[in-house]
Every structure is written in structure tokens, then in C-alpha cells.
Write a structure and sequence with these properties.
This protein is α+β, with helices and mostly antiparallel strands and 181 residues long. The protein has helices spanning 53-59, 61-67, 78-91, 142-149, 154-161, 167-177; strands at 7-10, 30-37, 46-52, 98-101, 121-126, 137-141. The protein has two domains: 7-91, first zn-finger domain of poly(adp-ribose) polymerase-1 (2-Layer Sandwich); 98-177, first zn-finger domain of poly(adp-ribose) polymerase-1, CATH 3.30.1740.10.
């Protein structure tokens, strides 16, 4: 099955329910379809979970921003959507991967299985969803991240997505994630 990206479209019927607020999405109203794995498809296909566009902008601002360029429908209240996106972006976790300081000392590095101390710089990557919806994080020590992910572009993605890092944090990331040579 071909992958379906996140989409913005007019509701085709009045039967869908917003996964954010729980209210019905009226026929013809713009809605956001979040692409998720289909738990009922044995072939591992995808489906969409529907949200009111403004609800999604508050809860899933990165995904809505990603879908907006492909939208061909006129947005009736662009100012409300822009305000919801700004509100959502101010509070949402950045997209994976990102670096942050551990807020507790409970996380374990998924590569070496050792604890990550509170306040320690760590790398968050998307947890494999095993066919179920979700967007949880797996955490890695900065020194374990490159070997575990084997992603040559990891440093660039961390620099793009991470927020609130000091210049010393960025230097530590560069030192740990730049391959020798």
C-alpha cells in the first residue's frame, strides 16, 4: 500500500470525530488527517486519524505545518489557524530527533542500557511503533547516539530540531557526533 501523507481536506461526511476534542467534524469543514499505522491491516498499511484543523494545529503543529503546503482548500479563518499554530509550536515537543537535558533521572539509554542522569544532555529519537499509533521517545546518551542510529545526518537534524541548548551543548553534540577522520 502506498504511504499516505498527513492531509488537509474538507470532511466528506459528518461521521468523523475529532481525535483532539471529541466533537463531530461537520461535512465540508476543513479537517486534518494524521497518518498513522493501521492496526487492522495485516500488511502494515496506514490510515488517518481526523482532527478539526485548529485542534490539530494546537496539538500537532509540526504535522499541520508539514501538510499545509499541499493544501488546495481555502482556509476560512487563517488568523485563527495561525494563532493556534503559534500556540501549539510554543508548547509542543520538537520533531524527532532532538537533543535536550533530561528532566528526571529515570530514563535509560536504549543503546548501552545505563541510566541517563537528571540534567544530562540526551538525544531523543522516535520509538518504533510496532504497528500501533503513538509518538513516544527513546533516549540515548549523546556518545551512544551516532552508533545506535547509524545516521550520518543526525547532527544536522539535532541542530535543526533542538531548542534551548547552550553553545556548550551544541559543541558537545558536534564533538560526540562528528565521525573521526
Amino acid at each position: 500500500m502506498d504511504a499516505m501523507p498527513h492531509i488537509i481536506e474538507a470532511a466528506k461526511s459528518g461521521r468523523s470525530t475529532c481525535r483532539t476534542c471529541g466533537a463531530k467534524i461537520e461535512k465540508g469543514l476543513l479537517r486534518f488527517g494524521e497518518e498513522v499505522p493501521n492496526a487492522f491491516d495485516p500488511d502494515g498499511g496506514t490510515t488517518h486519524q481526523w482532527h478539526h484543523l485548529v485542534c490539530a494545529a494546537k496539538k500537532r503543529p509540526h504535522q499541520v505545518t508539514e501538510a499545509l503546503p499541499s493544501n488546495t482548500e481555502p482556509i476560512p479563518d487563517q488568523a485563527a489557524l495561525d494563532a493556534a499554530l503559534q500556540e501549539g509550536l510554543a508548547t509542543a515537543k520538537p520533531p524527532f530527533p532532538f537533543a535536550e537535558h533530561a528532566s528526571t533521572g529515570r530514563a535509560r539509554c536504549q543503546a548501552c542500557r545505563k541510566g541517563i542522569e537528571k540534567g544530562e544532555l540526551r538525544v531523543a529519537i522516535a520509538r518504533p511503533n510496532d504497528g500501533m499509533p503513538g509518538d513516544g521517545a527513546m533516549y540515548l546518551h549523546v556518545g551512544c547516539a551516532l552508533e545506535h542510529t547509524k545516521d550520518a545526518a543526525l547532527l544536522a537534524a539535532l541542530e535543526k530540531h533542538s531548542r534551548g541548548l547552550t553553545p556548550q551543548d551544541v559543541d558537545a553534540l558536534r564533538t560526540a557526533l562528528t565521525p573521526p577522520g
